[in-house]
Amino acid sequence: MRRSVIGGAKRTTTTCLFLLNHAHHRSLLPPLHHRLDSSSSSSSSSATALLLLLRRLSSSSAASSPSPPNMPNPVSVQSINPKVLKCEYAVRGEIVILAQRLQEELKAKPGSLPFDEILYCNIGNPQSLGQLPITFFREVLALCDHPAILDKAEAQGLFRFTISNALSDSCLSYASADSIKRARQILDQIPGRATGAYSHSQGIKGLRDTITAGIEARDGFPANPNDLFLTDGASPAVHMMMQLLIGSEKDGLLCPIPQYPLYSASIALHGGSLVPYYLDEETGWGLEVSELKKQLKEARSKGITVKALVVINPGNPTGQVLAEENQRAIVEFCKQEGLVLLADEVYQENVYVPEKKFHSFKKVARSMGYGDNDLCLVSFQSVSKGYHGECGKRGGYMEVTGFSPEVREQIYKLASVNLCSNISGQILASLVMSPPKAFILSLSLSLFVNDFLLKVGDESYESYSAEKDGILKSLARRAKTLEDAFKSLEGITCNKAEGAMYLFPCIKLPEKAIKAAEAAKTAPDLFYCRRLLNATGVVVVPGSGFGQVPGTWHFRCTILPQEDKIPAIVSRLTAFHKSFMDEYRN
Amino acid sequence: MRRSVIGGAKRTTTTCLFLLNHAHHRSLLPPLHHRLDSSSSSSSSSATALLLLLRRLSSSSAASSPSPPNMPNPVSVQSINPKVLKCEYAVRGEIVILAQRLQEELKAKPGSLPFDEILYCNIGNPQSLGQLPITFFREVLALCDHPAILDKAEAQGLFRFTISNALSDSCLSYASADSIKRARQILDQIPGRATGAYSHSQGIKGLRDTITAGIEARDGFPANPNDLFLTDGASPAVHMMMQLLIGSEKDGLLCPIPQYPLYSASIALHGGSLVPYYLDEETGWGLEVSELKKQLKEARSKGITVKALVVINPGNPTGQVLAEENQRAIVEFCKQEGLVLLADEVYQENVYVPEKKFHSFKKVARSMGYGDNDLCLVSFQSVSKGYHGECGKRGGYMEVTGFSPEVREQIYKLASVNLCSNISGQILASLVMSPPKAFILSLSLSLFVNDFLLKVGDESYESYSAEKDGILKSLARRAKTLEDAFKSLEGITCNKAEGAMYLFPCIKLPEKAIKAAEAAKTAPDLFYCRRLLNATGVVVVPGSGFGQVPGTWHFRCTILPQEDKIPAIVSRLTAFHKSFMDEYRN
Predict the structure, then answer these.
(1) Which residues form a coiled coil (chains A, B) (predicted)?
(2) Are A198 and B444 inside 8 Å of each other by CB?
């Protein structure tokens, strides 16, 4: 079976001497010969390189070796799980693959395309576009990754340590390096301080306690650490609930259209039925309970058992923030119809308009008097969104309330099969839900101390707060600039991004453009987005990836490029759109 | 709908003043009154605490509120996905839940149990039992988490920086603080140095390049970064392949018995059929191809389409390391029968006996002359095992070779639905596959320099190597001590742990014990393990969680407790076993 070329190559290595490659370090020694020691790792050695080269050359012959006559083809597109084939995920789909190709082209041949960089507006990935992480969060994470730092005297030199003008010991204690303190607290919450151990499958208990306190502070209603399941971002949590709820194609979930395609993808993967309800673009992507009722009735008439309602608030891709009154009606609907309410609340920190405020569905339900036994409610949260945008850390949680102990046990089992989520992500989830705090002292305090002490709090509070506000205010400005730009274009209407990270403009495409798309066997919105990308390097996702009222065309554009890039995006978009319309205007 | 108690509570908060709680910081100021500022986070404030207390009191009434008459119960054990109910995962099952309860009891009432601590021998989680992380890995991770450290002069003071007695610039460059250098390299591999951004769904390209080089160095055969999918530990990778391969219960996978229950759990969750093949305990858990052929034939005769063969090498829970000849026969079998070979190789660094060596299945297949097009092969690797045992970091990868481009596209889609794996885990996977290196210079080198320079390499190499060897040698000693202890017990036989992290002793239970278990409606091995836990605090997993030849009884015991605990475990186990046998001997 052994091929002689390979056998020969093997013999070569074990006997011959190779030149030590000194190219990477300035050596005063003359070039030396060395023997490859079999006990040492050898990835960079010339010996391995030569052997690999020989094997690469031989691999083409191996690859073309005739298969035994009766070998069945083990895996083909026809033989894999058909649910996988059905699943689609546009956020990383065709347009993005094209963008990556163009980026490689630009790198290989600069100047070969009509633009000099790709501007990724396809995905809510702030740090990939230059947003910096929140310093406090990263300080704590680094300390937890390598606790030995904490025990070194230098630690305080490394992390910022500014003792403010303080009046007393009390104030001094406020002014200590709180990232160090927080890291110590977190390590003390982890059994054995072992950040490298699997945790409880729901996440480290102490961190869940911290998150619980954060939820209580946010909502003003009790929360329970046993209701929390910490996960590698919100996506695995959504999959877990889909896996739990969907037994067959007869099990349906009410999902908004447009929706974040994680939902359609996950429902397809688990073999369920997506029961669409349409958000009303006319009323700023309003969620009408009458529409929910209509779609539920229709689905039931088809024999679908509708298990749950998915609500994304603030909306993705639509950017609307639900009014509390609207949320009450939704809660009432789920309660009456016996539906699980799956509340995607990952954009809870991303609200940009003063007239709207985020309310968690749990808070709304509890304020209506509905307790834990009245409603099955799952709230998804992630460290990837908000002002911090820590997508790469894969942290998040779901708060699961209202399920029977028996069903909860099944959810726990699902969590335990993957052992636990990553500990850095767990730590970050706890930080996001309990960031540095300010305690505003006023009234009687002002009798005792000077004005400059009115605001005391965690040492990091000021810088943390400046970083947070800077990002959120900038996002609001970017949302407004892009919205205005879209609205100024012929045939484009665009709702406000009240929250989240996206605009979802509607394009009235000319008949001629639709015909051209049909001729190219492409959906008209994909046709537009592809043309836009090829002309400008701007990457947006066609509306068909999210769902839209048939016959309407949209695209999703993030508000995430840094502010200095926005003017270029606007001018490129504007110029492209004009020429596109000139080409296809009826 | 609003309950009056709750409404009342709400009114209270917005108007009343609360005492500032100074318990946590030494204050020189007299107790002050402060107003809860609505813009500040308030988790720790008395205002929220009081409100929450009121709401906790009221929640009992809310919980008992009568449901609307026609509300269907949205989720019950009867209505959830039946595949979830079917799935079992013993490693975190009944025994572990009992252990956690006993631990709480010990905490609440020290001295109330016949032991003073729980000794978790149920799961391969080294750092939870006191194993320390490898310093070099954690230094690099901390630097990548907070790159600002790199730019501070103090960084070199913080991380160890020993300039060895060096002869030349060349040696000086070797002696630089390589964790800093490595962190810089890694950051340069990440687009925009953004460790907080979603990466490519297969993982950061530069890190995949590093891992590729590591695989090539290990195997001596070419690897391809495009074949790698970086994942949050090996478990999600296994799930991804199960999702791909299993379309219905007619799709089967050949799995070893005993097996790591991730496989049975994942096959159950995805609705496929586990086709068992038995490892031969008599020959040290030998894997016989004749057994594979027999079981394949039988499954096919039942109409099962067998898609893949799962092999765990080194074995879990069985600890055997396959001989290369055996691996060749397995490759040949998969090739002939058109099966995907799913190779669980997460224990590749854990081999404890000089007569055995780990060979990856890819190396074996390539050395047989089989190229990329000849065999569908997936190799799973994890950062959780090896000498590092970084379970909490959730890093790992699968190397996917031999699939058609169309099927590969589907695997990519599955990866992309969850966006990407966590970046710290990705970084760690690259470190594990390219740890600090020594370059052994000899022959002509010895003509030029003194003996003490014969070994030069990355600065961390010596300490890294000492940490690694210390752990692996200790594991080997622990494995031997426990094996000998088990073998000395009446009615217990135990194969050697050649590799991995487990022993899987066989207990010949007396008839009387089996009857007692039956009377308690418990599997006999679970009965034994529960009695062991209640008597000694030692947690092991019953063999029935892994599968075993019917009528035989086993348990899995990790070799991971620190060495100073091993004598206590041995003496407790021995005393328990003696008294158990005395109680039930025929």
Answers:
(1) none
(2) no
Q: How many CB atoms lie within 10 A of CB A574?
A: 15
Q: What share of chain B is helix, strand, coil (3-state, %, to 5)?
A: 50, 15, 40
Tokens of A409: 């046990």
Q: What is the pLDDT of residue B163?
A: 34
Chain B residues within 8 A of A68 when measuring between CB atoms: 335-336
Q: Which fold has domain B90-130+468-584?
A: Aspartate Aminotransferase, domain 1 (3.90.1150)
Residues of A in Cβ contact (< 8 Å) with B183 = none
User: From CA B12, how far away is CA B36, in angstroms rounded?
Assistant: 12
- CATH code 3.40.640.10 region(s) in chain A: 200-432
Q: Shortest CB distance from B422 goes to which of A67, A367, A392?
A: A392
Judge whether B366 is closer than 8 Å to chain A, CB to CB: yes
CATH of B199-432, one of 3.60.130.10, 3.40.640.10, 3.50.50.60, 3.30.70.270: 3.40.640.10
ipTM here = 0.86
How far apart, in whole angstroms, are the C-alpha atoms of residue B517 and residue A511?
A: 77
In this structure, which topology does domain A90-130+471-584 adopt according to CATH? Aspartate Aminotransferase, domain 1 (3.90.1150)
Whether A82 and chain B come into contact, CB under 8 Å, resolves to yes
**Option in B82, B128, B158 nearest A197 (CB):** B128
Beta pairing class for A438-440 and A553-558: unpaired
The contacts of residue B122 (CB under 8 Å, 6+ apart) are B91, B95, B96, B99, B539, B540, B541, B556, B558
Of A30, A68, A198, the CB nearest to B128: A198
CB-based contact, A442 to chain B, within 8 Å: yes
SS3 A223: coil
Q: Is the pLDDT of residue A448 over 90?
A: no
Half-sphere exposure of A370 (CA within 13 A, CB side): 24
Distance from C-alpha of B199 to C-alpha of A125, rounded to nearest angstrom = 9
Looking at residue A337, its amino acid is E
Chain A residues inside the 8 Å CB shell of B62: 366, 369-372, 374
- In chain A, which among 286-315 make CB contacts under 8 A with chain B? 305, 307-308
Token code pair at residue A7: 């056998």
Mean pLDDT of all residues belonging to chain A: 85
For the stretch A52-108, pLDDT in tens is 777 776 654 444 444 444 455 678 999 999 999 998 887 777 898 899 899 999 999
- Is residue A74 within 8 A of residue A82, CB to CB? The reply is no
Residues of chain B with CATH 3.90.1150.10: 90-130+468-584
Model pLDDT for residues A452-505, shown as the tens digit of each residue: 444 456 778 989 999 999 999 999 999 999 999 999 999 999 999 999 999 999
How close, in Å, is residue A584 to chain B by CA atoms?
34
Q: A200-432 maps to which CATH number?
A: 3.40.640.10
Residues of A in contact with B369 (CB under 8 A): 1-3, 6, 62, 65
Radius of gyration (Cα) for chain A, nearest Å?
28
One-letter identity of residue B391? C
- Under DSSP, the state recorded for A351 is B
Residues 19-48 of B with CB under 8 A from A: 20, 22, 25-30, 32-35, 37, 39-44, 48
* The token pair that represents A493 in the structure block: 């209407």
Q: Is there a contact between B343 and B358 (Cβ–Cβ < 8 Å)?
A: no
Q: Is B98 on the interface with A (CB under 8 A)?
A: no
- Report the 10 Å Cβ neighbour count for B353: 14
For chain B, where do the domains classified as CATH 3.40.640.10 start and end?
A: 199-432
Handedness of CA A290, A293, A299, A302 (dihedral sign): negative
Interatomic CA distance for residues B71 and B99, integer angstroms: 39
